[in-house]
Structures are given as structure tokens and as C-alpha cells.
Specification:
- The chain is of the alpha+beta class.
- It has 7 helices and 4 strands.
- About 25% of the residues are buried.
- Helix 2 packs antiparallel against helix 4 and helix 2 packs across helix 6.
Length: about 170
């Protein structure tokens, strides 16, 4: 975990992050969110200490594509996996990550997505998967398999190791 964290937060001499998905991977690690839940987050869902989780984004093939320049996939916003909204209390690490994302953003209007690409577009699970693989490789962890979902599992395991009851972990994540 520490090697992954250090690599995800690595910077160039000018202070810019080396890995564009570093903050987002760490947000998954420190919150236990599903990827689609994180992608659907807007700044209005964060009050500084809590996140409101009430939607999810998935990608679907664009069946109405008419021009070559049209996107192959479109995002679809829906409810969470179990259709239940929840409010999660954030750890200090998660609060810090969100503050860093906001600080490094030109705009953070309440309706804007938190998880964007460098060009300001909505990020995707496949793009973040790719970013995570690069971080894992440079951290010397390329033999660990599981994709982005392993960050959710790691979060739950850490809660369990801290003595949190299984029922409370299930309710949180």
C-alpha cells in the first residue's frame, strides 16, 4: 500500500504529478467506492467531511454513432448497484486527496465531475485501469492482479483489520 501510494503521488521537479490517475486511484483506496460511483461524483456531493453516494456511471456502446468523430462509447448515469444512497464519512487521507484534486483544478463548480481527464472530460473506468497498471508497474507491483476493484477490497480488508464489524463494513462500502 505504501509503495503504491508513494508512486501514485510521485512528482516531477516542477511539482506536477507523474501519474494523472494517481489521485483517483488513491481516492478509491481511501474510500472503498466502486469505480462507477467515483466517476459519478460531483463537487456538490462532497461537504468537506462526507461524500454522498447516490449514483453511478457506466459506459455503453454508442449505437447512434453517425460520424467517425462521434464517440464509440457514451456514459450512462444511473443509480448505485443496490439502488440505495449512502453518506460516507471520509478519512483524513480521503479528505486530503479531494482537496488536492480541487486545488489542482482550474474550476470546481458544484455540478462538475470530480474525476476528469487532463482535458476536462469525464474519465472512464478503462482509462483509470490503464493509469493504475502504469502506477503498479512503476511501484514494482505489476504481479498483483485485480484491477481497480482490488483497491475496494484492500479498503475493506483494512477496515476489518482495524476491528470494524463485518456488518458495518458492508454498510459502509
Amino acid at each position: 500500500i505504501e509503495r503504491f501510494r508513494e508512486t501514485a503521488l510521485a512528482t516531477y521537479n516542477n511539482g506536477n504529478l507523474k501519474y494523472s490517475g494517481g489521485y483517483y486511484c488513491l481516492l478509491l483506496l481511501y474510500t472503498g467506492l466502486r469505480v462507477g460511483e467515483m466517476l459519478a461524483l460531483r463537487w456538490d456531493d462532497w461537504d468537506g467531511g462526507h461524500l454522498i453516494i447516490n449514483k453511478s456511471i457506466s459506459m455503453a456502446k454508442n449505437r447512434e454513432k453517425k460520424r467517425e468523430s462521434d464517440n464509440n462509447y457514451i456514459s450512462i448515469e444511473g443509480t448505485t448497484k443496490n439502488q440505495k444512497a449512502r453518506v460516507i464519512e471520509l478519512s483524513n487521507e480521503a479528505k486530503w486527496i479531494l482537496q488536492m484534486i480541487k486545488q489542482n483544478r482550474e474550476s470546481s463548480h458544484k455540478d462538475e465531475f470530480i474525476v476528469q481527464t487532463r482535458t476536462g472530460r469525464l474519465n472512464t473506468a478503462s482509462n483509470l485501469e490503464h493509469r493504475m497498471k502504469i502506477i503498479m508497474k512503476h511501484a514494482g507491483l505489476e504481479n498483483i492482479k485485480g484491477g481497480l476493484h482490488i483497491l475496494r477490497k484492500t479498503f475493506a480488508t483494512q477496515m476489518y483489520e482495524k476491528g470494524v464489524r463485518v456488518a458495518d463494513i458492508a454498510a459502509y462500502i
